[in-house]
Amino acid sequence: MTGKTLFDGDVVISGGGLAGLTLALALHRAGVKVAVIDALPLDAHADTAFDGRASALAYTSWRMLQEIGIAKHLKGQSQRIEDILVVDGRPLDGLKPGGPGVDSLHFDRREIHPREEGEPLGYMVENRHTRIAAAKCASEAGLPVFAPRRAHAMQTQAGHGELALEGGDRLKARLIVACDGKMSRLREQAGIRSLGRRYGQSAIVLTVEHELPHEGVAYEYFMPGGPFAILPLTGNRSSLVWTEKDAPARAIAALDPQGFQEALEARFGDFLGRVKPVSPVHIYPLGLMLAERFTAERLALAGDAARTIHPIAGQGFNLGIRDAAALSEVVVDALRAGLDPGSQAVLTRYERWRKTDSAALALGTDMFNLLFSNDNTALRHVRGLGLSLANAVPQARRFFMRTAGGETGDLPRLLKGEALRL
Amino acid sequence: MAQSSSPETLSSPSIDPAEVEKFSRMAAEWWDPKSKFAPLHKFNPARLSWIRERLSAHFGREGREPLEGLELLDIGCGGGLVSEPMARLGAKVTGVDAAEPNIKTALVHAREAGLKIDYRHGTAEQLLEAEGPGRFDVVLNLEVVEHVADPAQFLTDCAALVKPGGVMIVGTINRTSRAFVTAIFGVEYVLGWLPRGTHRFAKLVKPEEVEGALKAAGLTPETPVGVSYNPLKDSFFISSDAGVNYLMAATK
């Protein structure tokens, strides 16, 4: 055999993105021997040109980022979400286009976390800041990172798995985790099929500045082409996730600044005063993908490698964090009991824990998108009524907030803010 | 697991190269959570976690290998589902089983997993005779007492093998009507998790009977904990209900 064994431990993670690093830091902090490999240097992910998105971190996700040390590097870069206002975004009558409609559903975090300094519904953070914070944490903690190195194949032997790198070296561990994104190479090599479809929608993503403060309110307007979300960032800035059918989305993204400004104002409205783009405009095609299995021999899928969902409820990154929380707990429990963390029994526990949540969210966001992304007048009345009804029932509001916050089902310890230790 | 016919003498079997493949296949089956050993795999994490925490507390040690250097006996070790985890936690493990195929299966699997475990074919009585009393820091006595001919004598022999300052852990099924309905009728006849006839009701042992035998042998038994089943999660957890499966620690 040529090449060297660069690492021999408990877990090797392929992919140093948000899910991969969150998992790696959780395991490393607990005392598990873990290494990460990525084709790009970790700081390459920190450029706005690489990822211009911002993510809503549910309050349970934030607890985990605090516990594993990422949150302390996000001071001044995270915006509390105090309220979420869900509205039908095109008033049935009215003179000026854009802005919130009549039927609305208002979520206020004080209904579930009443104290003055209580937990918000979540935090908005630009992805690049989270990536920089995670990379900083990794180097502070002395996490073994092999980057830029490319993994080309995985093999299993009695008692462990092996990741062969281009150039002939290899990484050995009892468990290999694929955090290598929605086009996961390890998933494909393991013969795990995925179910999926394109929505025919794309998301236009950019950061805007507005005259008036957002007061920590996130808005989601339902428009015929898809949801239009205004998500509060630090300062008088918001992240826009503007969904349209593919062709109009491409056309809008290609408009000259003047034309883009007009299209933006027509949807955004003027309730926050004058609004102007302050970042490059990115466009991301939307699709749903769910891996048929989350595990194979000595392999677990996590993050986007396991599934990608519609951004309508802002849950994508949170699912990756919940994977990391559940998988690190399963691995630590196994090691504490002297069990093999890559054995079938342990992998089965992870898969059962995560698959229901993923399938339910995939289906839920899918149905929600179907119901809301259209301009049928009857349906608009029905959903308007639905919003107003849900708004009138406090139990329903609290249930939605807790679900979006990730607090339903069997919560992993890290999402309760508890430490994991070997 | 079962001590069907008593071996004549204690031995450390070696594996004929011609037998390796057969026992390797048997080992693969023991370790497959979807095989006939599925119930053991469901049961194992809960009891192992409890045993680890109990031993960690008893010896005042934490970390990756809290049992480092401790002499541990796994009596009725079967294919090694408990011996191997204990070896990973640092213990010097001796695994003893009265069924020779079990020992050979365990040997092959430990070799594949790269673990050093001293596996012997024999009984607790023979081990006591060969090694003398007070040889082990820890004696694990799991799912065996309900299968032996003379439970009281068996517990006395096991207790004698514990070093002063050491600990024994007994795990078995209670003799209650609820245990009959769930652990025998449910598991063997309804769910089919274990072959019919694996457990006989009259052979089951109550916690107070284990307590009595251990006290008589000079150990200090503790209140037992239950290992209960959650059908919604299809998994076992440690509870205060010792009415069906239970675990009891006793110190010397």
TrEMBL record, chain A:
Superkingdom, natural source: Bacteria
UniProt keyword list: FAD, Flavoprotein, Monooxygenase, Oxidoreductase
Similarity remark: Belongs to the UbiH/COQ6 family.
Requisite cofactors: FAD
Pfam families: FAD_binding_3
Every FAD-binding domain range: 10-356
Official protein name in the record: 2-octaprenyl-6-methoxyphenyl hydroxylase
Pathway(s) per entry: Cofactor biosynthesis; ubiquinone biosynthesis
Organism whose genome encodes this protein: Glycocaulis albus
TrEMBL record, chain B:
Pathway, per record: Cofactor biosynthesis; ubiquinone biosynthesis
Catalysed reactions, as listed in the record: a 3-(all-trans-polyprenyl)benzene-1,2-diol + S-adenosyl-L-methionine = a 2-methoxy-6-(all-trans-polyprenyl)phenol + S-adenosyl-L-homocysteine + H(+); a 3-demethylubiquinol + S-adenosyl-L-methionine = a ubiquinol + S-adenosyl-L-homocysteine + H(+)
Keyword hit for S-adenosyl-L-methionine: yes
Gene3D superfamilies in the record: Vaccinia Virus protein VP39 (3.40.50.150)
Residues the entry annotates as binding S-adenosyl-L-methionine: R47, G76, D97, L142
Domain Methyltransferase type: 73-170
Enzyme Commission numbers on file: 2.1.1.222, 2.1.1.64
Keyword terms, alphabetized: Methyltransferase, S-adenosyl-L-methionine, Transferase, Ubiquinone, Ubiquinone biosynthesis
Database matches in InterPro entries: Methyltransf_11, SAM-dependent_MTases_sf, UbiG_MeTrfase
Listed Pfam families: Methyltransf_11 (PF08241)
Keyword hit for Chaperone: no
Physiological role: O-methyltransferase that catalyzes the 2 O-methylation steps in the ubiquinone biosynthetic pathway.
Homology family: Belongs to the methyltransferase superfamily. UbiG/COQ3 family.
Protein name: Ubiquinone biosynthesis O-methyltransferase
Annotated organism of origin: Glycocaulis albus
